[in-house]
Design goal:
single chain, 254 residues, alpha/beta, Rossmann fold, seven-stranded parallel β-sheet
């Protein structure tokens, strides 16, 4: 039985850096499955590692038939899933009614529904020492005005990950909710919806992607439930527990 890792959002940004980190940390893996919409980007990236075996799965995780393809691939291959990293996601930052309904639905499907479905489909192929890493966000700690739907999807994923952590602990399957703050990823840099005017986003530090990925894999293996990189973002996590959100939203608004 071949041992694999599965990484979504693998064609760019944090997902791509996760692939590099997994290659370094888990050289014993037989195969890494790369999931993203753009087949050519995945193939080009995979070509940089000629000694690593990849399976390219060009799937749009907002489309139901993609999950049927995923399930059928698992059924045919019968792998042992060492690691599932749910990184794929999208963000929009505008007042709620200025974002199209289609875009709102896409955020919900990709940021919240897709990780839940992939966890459900992958778990029968996991065993003790396997791990699930869900990329959440500090935006999920409290409602974020002008990112209302995005922060709600990340709040769902955050709570889902913690609940799954408790359920799977006895089976020896680790679950980590990674909750980063600002990152210079393709999602951040190409999103035309991000605020043009001064906001809290402008004053918060950007995190080192390579450090995030390596540190979070270590935390996952250690059995940690939540990892928030960066002192400022750790502090925000604590503040979000202590201060009523009615007041906190005056400062979290982007």
């Amino acid at each position: 039985m071949k041992e694999i890792a599965i990484i979504t959002g693998a064609s760019s940004g944090l997902g791509r850096v996760f692939v590099e980190a997994v290659i370094e940390k888990y050289p014993q893996l037989d195969e890494i499955w790369l999931i993203a919409r753009h087949k050519e980007l995945l193939k080009k990236f995979a070509g940089k590692y000629p000694t690593q075996t990849f399976k390219i799965l060009p799937l749009d995780l907002t489309v139901e038939k993609s999950f049927a393809v995923f399930r059928e691939t698992l059924k045919q291959e019968q792998p042992l899933i060492k690691l599932l990293i749910n990184d794929a996601g999208i963000v929009s930052s505008k007042p709620f009614q200025k974002i199209s309904r289609q875009r709102q639905e896409m955020m919900i499907k990709l940021n919240a529904e897709a990780p839940m479905i992939l966890c459900y489909d992958a778990l029968p192929y996991m065993q003790a020492s396997s791990g699930i890493l869900n990329v959440c966000s500090v935006a999920g700690f409290a409602p974020t005005p002008n990112m209302t739907t995005y922060s709600a999807t990340k709040a769902f994923l955050f709570d889902f990950s913690k609940g799954l952590y408790a359920e799977l602990k006895e089976r020896g399957i680790h679950v980590l909710a990674l909750c980063p703050g600002n990152m210079k990823t393709g999602m951040f840099q190409t999103n035309g919806d991000l605020p043009k005017e001064h906001s809290v986003v402008d004053i918060l530090p950007f995190l080192d992607l390579r450090k995030i990925t390596h540190d979070s894999l270590e935390k996952l293996e250690a059995g940690q439930m939540v990892f928030t990189p960066g002192v400022i973002y750790k502090l925000y996590r604590v503040i979000a527990k202590l201060i009523p959100h009615k007041f906190l939203m005056h400062f979290s608004k982007v």
